[in-house]
Structures are given as structure tokens and as C-alpha cells.
Amino acid sequence: MDITTPDTQEPHPAPRPPAPGRKHTATRPGDRIFLGLSRGAGILLLVIMAAIAAFLAYRASLAITKDHGNFLTTLEWNTGVTPPVFGIAVLAFGTVVSSVIAMVLAVPVAVAIALFLTHYAPRKVSGPIAYVIDLLAAVPSIVYGLWGALVLVPNLNGLFGWLDTYLGWTGVFSWDGGAPRSMLTVGILLAIMILPIITNVSREVFRQVPRMHEEAALALGATRWEVVRMAVLPFGRSGVVSASMLGLGRALGETMAVATVLSPDFLIHGSLLNPGGGTFAQNIASKFSEASEFGRDALIASGLVLFVITLLVNGAARMIIARRKEYSGANA
Amino acid sequence: MSTAAVTDKRSTLRGATLPRWSPWAIAAGSVAVAIGIGAAAGLHSHVQWGLIAALLFVLATYGIAARVEGRRQAKDRVATSLVWVAFLLAVVPLVSLIWVTVQRGVKVLDFYFLSHSMGVVADSQPGGGIYHAILGSLEQVGLATLLGAPIGVLTAVYLVEYGRGRLARAVTFFVDVMTGIPSIVAGLFILSLMLILDMQPFGFAGSLALAILMMPVVVRSTEEMLKLVPNELREASLALGVPKWRTILKVVLPTSLGGITTGVMLAIARIAGETAPVLLLVFGNRFINANPFDGAQASLPLYIYQQYGAGAEPAYDRAWAASLALIAFVMILNLVARGIARWKSPR
């Protein structure tokens, strides 16, 4: 990583003649120490990121080199046998499917709630509601998991039966009547969990819509919906996209809620309603306690893949946000 | 339908509009019709009755408004009702979550529960408590804060007060990216270190992972706060000949102390609920272990997971009660943090 190169200039020997070109020349020892400390903290963050990648890659390489299957395409996870055979295909499939379901369900609702808060709700209500949504973002994921497993799952039998009766012929919604602990359940729960963050970021964006745009539309006789469609949504599009990607990042890496709700099985099947499948994070949490040291290395290898995926998704989201610096949603 | 067109005779400039009470009337009408249809067709599920009512409401709104006010107004009304429906739809699970947690949690949550461990209680029996888990959580989160908060604040100081050039841009970008690291990946990172050093699970390992998760959150919020400090304050101090580091320590940081405290507390609230890294690194313990540097410890979120996994009714009750305690802790931290933010906010 070439970013850390400025580090090498750090301990320059007693700067009597101040280095030319530097604006904030540190002359006093206190200044030098303080600059060193704060810059050191920043560099430490970069070092941690690099170390995460390096150490995960090192332990992962120990496992992958001994893998007798193809790490990317093998449909089983047997690390306890000799020779070990494991691959991430099932996990990649499950992670993508559950996150996509979560996005499809959460994004429209979150955008609607953001619109509700900024353009529809009476002023007096929208403040407290926004506050409550902030608080809900703080509910720990394990509590969502417990609720999902003990409250949501028993209540999904009706929906699953209905989907099977009317849409079962598609194959995607066929159901064999088992406990509804499937990819669709996971997707629904993840949607509920990422709703607050997408809502918060979208709300910030919609609030930034220039008042003039809206008033111009109103003056032309537009209805409220036309104002939203012609002034608010086009302005907020990139913000909504990046908000969704932040939500996607959360959904991809969510561990405990998936681990409590899904009844995992290492296979890929087409039905969203039948139990089975798994996600990267869930697989790590469920298999960890029985895994040998080699098994843990294999789990670390799958974690490395998850790390890279979330890095790409979040990096892309940040790039989009950075184009409009004003509403960085980082503290949402 | 009962709602007739009402034209405003007084103004010829405005088009016909439905009276203000019309949405309520249409809603009442569609609920009545839905109950009729549901009862006639013998549908048992009340969810289906609700869906029929909602569908009727949207269709009736569109139809009536399109007749009286015109298509554009009709679309507007449908969009309004859809936005309201989305909002109500989202409220249902969230209210249910809080309601069930409180309702089932208060059954077990008492002083005995807070002051005893699971040492001599099997998972299938009633009794036992979360003392060991609270102790473990407090120690792990406390140590993580001691590590993460200073580094986070210093990084933010660097970015705002000194940061120019490529290093600062890189730090900013990676702090942003770091906020999105899944907690389990942070756990795996420390785990890989532990595998290399051949160590057994202990509390402080969990703290390290939690500190990694905490740092970017603290950096972000502190940065926002430092940017709010007016430049005049810095310039006044520097003009008096105060060195830059003393200006930062004595002027900039005290001015934004309230906001920084808020940010740190929100970060604490976030890591207090993290389960995955604790599961990998601290492992859980039924007994009281007050030493975070030696041996497996318990932790509140992990306790919930393990009690859920035990699969017995008394264990579920304990899981709910522990959830209630955890939510209460996180919410109180949030409320206090926001209170400080409001009280100390620069005016």
C-alpha cells in the first residue's frame, strides 16, 4: 500500500531550519509530539486495515493450499476429513440471495418512509418519528435475531402457505411445509434491520433538495406527488443509491440474525421457502465452535472473501457519496 | 359509494375537490366492504381481510378522485396513501420487537437475575442470571473504549487540524470504508493473530476487535464536531502566541467536548450489542470470570445467543430478559448521548 509512504518522512532529525514547503512547521517540541501522535493515530488506522487484509490472506492461504476441491465452486464444506474439501459457492449464493431479497423489500419502503418524513408527515410528528428510527438503528442485531426466530418465524406460516398455493408453480416459491426458516425469512429479517440506515441517509438527501426546485414545481401547478417525482427523486437519486449500498453492506455482513433464523444446510436449491443454504457470516458463526485449527483457517478464508466483497460495496457507496460531499451518511 | 362529488360553488378558479373527510370515509367504506367479502367468502385469516381492505381503499381512492378531481390529483392521492402504508408497514415489526421484548423480558428480569451467574443452573432449568455476562460486557466494552476512543479522537484531530495531502485523503477514505467492515471480519482478524500466537479465548481479545469496530465511528462523529468549532477561536488563540498543540488541547477540544462525548457514547452503544467477534474471541462462560486477560468470559449479547441456542423454555425467558437489559442499556446510552448533544450544542 503506497499510502503509508509519508510515514517514512516522519522522524526527520531536529528540524532547525524548517523544511521548506511545509505550511505548519512544527518548531516546538510540544507541537512535534502532538502532530506525531495524531498523525500516528491516522497511520495506525491504515495499518490496521492493511493488517486485516494481510493476516486474513495469510491464514486463508494456509487453508486454501490444502483444499482438494475448488475453493470457488465446490458445493461442500468438509474440513474435518482428509483430504479436506470445501468451497464457498453455497455461501456466496446464499449471501447474495438473502441480501438481494432484503434490498428489494427494504429500499422502496425506506425511500417511502424518508419521503413521508420529509414531505408528507405533519411537522410535529416527523421529528419524534425520525428520533425513534434513530433509536431502532441502535437495537443490537442479536435482539433482532431472537425476535426473528421466536416471533417472526411462527408468523410466516400463513404467508409461506399462500405463496406456495398461488406462486408455487414458479419453483421459486414452492414450499414443502417445513419450518419457515429459509432464505426468504432471512431476507425479510435483514430488510427490517437495514430499514433504519437506508431511511436515515435518504432522509438527509431529501432534506437537501433545494427549496426553489420544489416551489418552482408547485408554482407550475404540480401536485405533491409530481413535486416528489420531478424535483425530489431526481435530485436524491445518487444519494438513495449510496444509501442502499450502505444497507447492502450491512446485510452482506450480518451474522447473528441470520445464524439464529436460518436452519442451514450446505446446498443450493431454487426455492426461497425451503430451509437450507447459508451465508458467509452465518457459516462462520455456526461452524466455529466445532472447527479444528484447520477448520478455522478455512472459515477465515471465507471471511476474507466476505471482507473483499463488503470493501468493494462500501467503497463504491462512498465514491458515490463523495461526489456530493454535503451529505456523507457515514455517521448514520 | 356513499361519497358524492362536492363542488366548491364559491370559487370558479379552483377545480372540484373532494372534501377533507373523504379519505376517512373511503377507508371506513372499504373496511366495511372487506369485512363483508371476507365473511361471505369464509376467509379465516384477518391478514387477508386487511389486504382486501387496503386494496379496496387504493382502488376506490383512485376511482373517486379520478372522477371528481382528475387523473393527476388521483395519482397524488394514491401516492400519499402508499407512503402512509409504507410507513405503517415498517412500524409493525418494530413495535412488535419492542413490545415482545418488554412483555417477555419483565417476567424474569429482577434483582436476582441481575446479581447471579449461570454457574449451577442447567439451561433447561429456571433460575440463574446475567451477572457474569454484564461484568464481562462492561469490561470488554470498557477496555475497547479505552483503546478505540483516544485513537479515534486523535485521528479526527489529525484530519481536521493538520490533514492535507494524500495521507489525509487516504485516511478519510479508509475510515469511511472501515465503518462498513462486518463485525465478524474484525473478529476473524484478531482470531488469525491468536492462531498465530497460539492463544486461548480471553476477554481482551474481544476488546481489540470491538475497538477496531469503534474507531471509525468515533473518527466520523469527532470530525464533524471539530469542523463546527469556529476558526476565529483558533486564530485568536494562535494570535496570542499559544502553540498549536495547546490551542487544540485548550480551545478546540473543550469547545467540542459535548459533541465528542456524544459520538463516543453512540459508538459504545453500537459495540455493546456486537455478538459475532465476542463469539469467536471470548467464547462465553457460565461462571463469573472477572479477569479479562485470562480465560473465557461471558458477554451479554453472547449470553442471549447461547440461551437461545439452548432451546428450552426457561432459557428463552432468560434470553428475552437479557435482551431487555441490553436494549435498556443501549437506549439509555443513546438518550443520554443525545441529551448531552442538545445541552452542549454550540449555539
Task: Provide a quick synopsis of the model.
Chain A has 332 residues and is mainly α. Chain A has helices at 29-64, 89-120, 123-137, 141-155, 157-167, 183-207, 211-219, 224-253, 256-261, 280-287, 293-323; strands at residues 77-78, 85-86. Chain A folds into 2 domains: 2-65; 85-327, MetI-like fold.
Helix-and-strand structural type of chain B:
mainly alpha
Mean pLDDT, all residues of chain A = 85
Which superfamily, in CATH terms, is the homologous superfamily of the largest domain in chain A? MetI-like
Q: What's the total count of β strands of chain B?
A: 0
Structural class category of chain A: mainly alpha
* CATH class annotation of the largest domain in chain B: Mainly Alpha
**Beta strand count of chain A:** 2
The coarse silhouette of chain A is flat
Report the β-strand fraction of chain A as a percent range. Answer: under 5%
Order of helices and strands of chain B: HHHHHHHHHHHHHH
What is the string of SSEs of chain A from the N terminus onward? HEEHHHHHHHHHH
Quaternary structure annotation:
heterodimer
**Number of helices, where a helix is a run of at least 4 consecutive DSSP H or I residues of chain A:** 11
What is the CA-based Rg of chain B, rounded? 28 Å
The CATH architecture of the largest domain in chain A would be Orthogonal Bundle
Distance from N terminus to C terminus of chain B (CA atoms, Å) equals: 55 Å
Descriptive key words:
A: 332 residues, mainly alpha, MetI-like fold, two-stranded antiparallel ribbon, 11 helices, 1% strand, disordered N terminus, disordered C terminus, B: mainly alpha, 74% helix
